[in-house]
Amino acid sequence: MKKLNLALALLLSVSLIFTGCDSLNKTAKGTLIGTGSGAAIGAGIGGLIGKDGKSAAVGAAVGSAVGATAGAIIGKKMDKAAEEAARVEGAQVETIEDVNGLKAVKVTFDSGILFAFNSSALNADSKAALTKFAKILVENPTMDIAVLGHTDNVGTLAANQKVSLNRAKSVADYLIAEGAARTQMKTVEGKDYSMPVASNETVEGRAQNRRVEVYMYASEQMIEDAQNQAS
């Protein structure tokens, strides 16, 4: 059963790739992978980011179990947000599980869609995509946001981490400029190359590893509101 749940969880992953795969089509349509209703099924976010299973857990840990009805209410909101995010050009969207066992959304953009090579300045196409994405955050002010930049393994660790952080900041700052609340941005962080999603031994794999991931997950306020609605 655990293996089945893990397989389902992997199918439910949501990735917005806002980093730099310079060879990808900048006008590619977004994609949505495995969105359902209610609470997410599976191993949780720790098993969903990176082939090696490493991850930064997301979620505002509430210290107590969230009821099934409240979880379903949150799940429906996350499903709707995931469907809207999948309409954003260049976005790969997956539903995942946060630290509370609640459905969350992971959106990944490759760097080629957002940035020029080795740059953290957003290009025109990426601004158009992020403007659409920001509307989802404006419509869901009780969703918390984490923005994580990632790189391939070319160059020094320090240099990679710096460009990842600058790209994550560029994405977060632009979303805020387009109306998202600064208080929603709980984490804006640059990772090095320790959390790959593909092999760094190939050009294609390194392109996939250069990315910015945006996570949407239930805040304490959203959980409280759902529990009140369920009671």
Which features would summarize this protein structure in a list?
single chain; disordered N terminus; 60s Ribosomal Protein L30, Chain: A; globular; about 230 residues; 6-stranded mixed beta sheet; 6 strands; about 15% strand; alpha/beta
Give a short summary of the structure:
This protein has 231 residues and is α/β, with parallel strands linked by helices. It has helices at residues 2-11, 68-85, 111-114, 124-139, 157-177, 203-209, 220-230, and strands at residues 31-33, 92-97, 103-110, 143-150, 185-190, 211-218.
Could you characterize the architecture of this molecule?
It is a single chain. The chain has 231 residues and is of the alpha/beta class. It has one domain: 60s Ribosomal Protein L30, Chain: A (2-Layer Sandwich). It contains seven helices and six strands, in the order H-E-H-E-E-H-H-E-H-E-H-E-H. It has a six-stranded mixed beta sheet with strand order 1-2-3-6-4-5, sandwiched between helices. The chain is globular.
